[in-house]
Design brief:
Shape: globular
CATH architecture of the largest domain: 3-Layer(aba) Sandwich
Number of helices: 20
Largest sheet: 6 strands, parallel
Strand content: 15-25%
CATH topology of the largest domain: Rossmann fold
Bound molecules: thiamine diphosphate, magnesium ion
Length: 517
């Protein structure tokens, strides 16, 4: 049976469970769009390739399954690269497809001529030009499995138009090899970890994104509770604590500080986390062990002597630290005006237990991590990732809606972060990708401004002008609400979450950063 390479690709995507692609139309994509549309695959359109790529990587970070996006050639690739790069930093699975001019014209100065495979290569696990139509499924399969193999990451296929259009007989089509999953953790590794932990007086588990993807987070928390060991998550990694737990003591490595447990612990267990800047590159000389799996086996090994004094101490420090953050906020309060913590308190009050919370922005993100993530930090919440990017939120919220049609989705954003791709509110509304966004508007690149004030005594290129975000939202087909009084935020959030559609709640705030003196 003959089909075009694009049709074979769409069929292979469907076999992997893909039923949508985020996209922005343009040169080099038409045969793929045509094949996808005829096969009933949904094309989620966007107004900036950044958003399309953020949708794909956000979906990957939420579900552990690659989200897919497709863009045209040339500069479109540079726009999409933002989301690809975020997936790269955060080791998240995504598939990026770029179209191009016909194969024989590449390098001759064809329209939007660019070595797209080469441009994407340094920030992806796999980036190849599909130059043989018969290999389209085999290369797709190889890319997909590469994206999903830990450490996960973005993959890219550059597919020229003539390759997409080429007819390929089923008999000539190369298929992929299914690579078996890596073997589980060995009994020796579990025993060795148990020996070290038994000998430690002040162990600390740092649980990162990989644990969210492997689905081992619940087992880790159960082990930590039974052994009385505190658990922290590097800020912006995927959380693993979906419920209040006595063992979870919040995020580590925030710019605004943390309870300071790492410095005093005598053994760090890296569980699906990287020893990067958020952990001070683990330069303290502390004993480090690494265990990504095997928590159930560890828990069942024996009755653990609960190192509860250390856990109590960790909890005490965490409570004191959160109180300091609150005191800092109260000191910044301007009478009669709303502060960022009023927004945080309202979210804490109304966000349903199963709601997806996205956090995008500088200071507002710090307040959220210090106060909302101190007791629980579920994997279905979506922060920016270890890149520290701002501006992913609208694409991320669209991804959260695609990942789950029922969960309430709430985006908490700074005013600066929100405007990177704000026009895509129109695409989200029109395509039924509903969410609620609350914009904490300090008319400023707030966290940078605070830093400048501390270091240089003045902000430099950090002030922003006024935008009526409620009116802007309405002009883009969404609902818009402005809330001036702090006691009205929770009510506005609650009714927006219940209403369906895309709603933007504009909350003007004054204040500063939790790390400020
Ligand atoms: C793409 C990108 N550009 C710039 C930065 C640097 N940056 C980090 S936080 C921040 C300010 C964000 O402002 P806003 O979203 O309004 O949040 P606020 O700090 O005011 O709460 C900036 C510019 C970044 N992290 N990512
Ligand atoms: Mg701001």
């Amino acid at each position: 049976m003959k089909r075009t390479a694009a049709e074979w690709l769409v069929e292979a995507l469907r076999e992997r469970g893909v039923d949508w692609m985020a996209a922005l139309c343009g040169h080099g994509l038409d045969p793929l769009f045509d094949a996808a549309t005829r096969a009933g695959m949904r094309l989620i359109d966007t107004r900036n390739e950044q958003t399309a790529a953020y949708i794909a990587e956000g979906y990957g970070r939420l579900t552990g399954k690659p989200g897919v996006c497709a863009t045209s050639s040339g500069v479109a690739v540079a726009n999409a690269l933002t989301g690809v790069m975020n997936a790269w930093f955060d080791q998240a699975p995504m598939l990026y497809i770029s179209g191009s001019a016909n194969l024989p014209t590449l390098g001759l100065g064809c329209f939007q001529d660019l070595d797209q495979a080469g441009v994407v290569k340094p920030v992806s696990k796999y980036s190849h030009l599909v130059d043989t139509p018969e290999r389209i499924v085999q290369m797709f399969d190889e890319a997909w499995q590469t994206a999903c193999a830990p450490p996960r990451g973005p993959v890219h296929l550059m597919i020229p138009m003539d390759v997409q259009r080429a007819e390929v007989d089923g008999a000539a089509l190369l298929r992929g090899n299914t690579i078996p999953a890596a073997p589980g953790v060995s009994a020796e590794a579990v025993e060795a970890a148990a020996r070290v932990l038994r000998a430690a007086g002040r162990p600390l588990i740092i649980a990162g994104s990989e644990l969210h993807y492997s689905g081992e987070g619940g087992e880790l928390i159960a082990f930590a509770e039974s052994a009385g060991i505190p658990v922290q998550t590097p800020i912006w990694d995927r959380g693993i604590c979906p419920r209040d737990s006595e063992a979870f003591v919040g995020v580590i490595g925030a710019a605004s500080g943390d309870p300071g447990l790492l410095a005093d612990s005598d053994c760090v267990v890296l569980a699906g986390a990287a020893p990067d800047y958020r952990l001070g590159y683990l330069q303290t000389g502390v004993k480090v062990i690494r265990l990504d799996r095997g928590w159930k086996q560890l828990r069942e090994k024996q009755d653990w002597p609960r190192t509860s004094e250390w856990l109590e101490e960790a909890r005490r420090r965490r409570t004191e630290f959160a109180a300091r953050i609150r005191t800092c906020a109260e000191a910044q309060r301007v009478e009669g005006r709303t502060h960022a913590i009023d927004v945080i308190d309202a979210i804490e009050k109304v966000l349903p237990a199963e709601g997806t919370l996205l956090i995008d922005g500088g200071s507002i993100g710090q307040w959220a991590h210090q106060l909302l993530c101190r007791r629980r930090y579920p994997g279905y919440w979506l922060p920016c990732g270890r890149s520290g990017v701002v501006g992913f939120g609208i694409g991320g919220a669209m991804a959260a809606r695609l990942a789950d049609p029922r969960r309430p989705v709430l985006l908490l954003s700074g005013d600066g972060a929100f405007t990177f791709n704000v026009a895509d509110l129109e695409c989200a509304s029109r395509q039924g990708l509903s969410f609620v966004a609350v914009v904490a508007d300090d008319q400023c690149w707030g966290i940078t401004h605070s830093g400048h004030l501390r270091q240089y005594g003045q902000g430099m290129a950090t002030q922003l002008g006024a935008i009526p975000f409620d009116q802007l939202a309405r002009s883009l087909g969404a609902n818009g609400v402005r809330v001036n009084k702090r006691e009205e935020i929770a009510g506005a959030l609650d009714s927006a979450l219940g209403s369906g559609g895309v709603t933007v709640i504009h909350v003007p705030i004054v204040g500063g950063n939790p790390g400020a003196d």
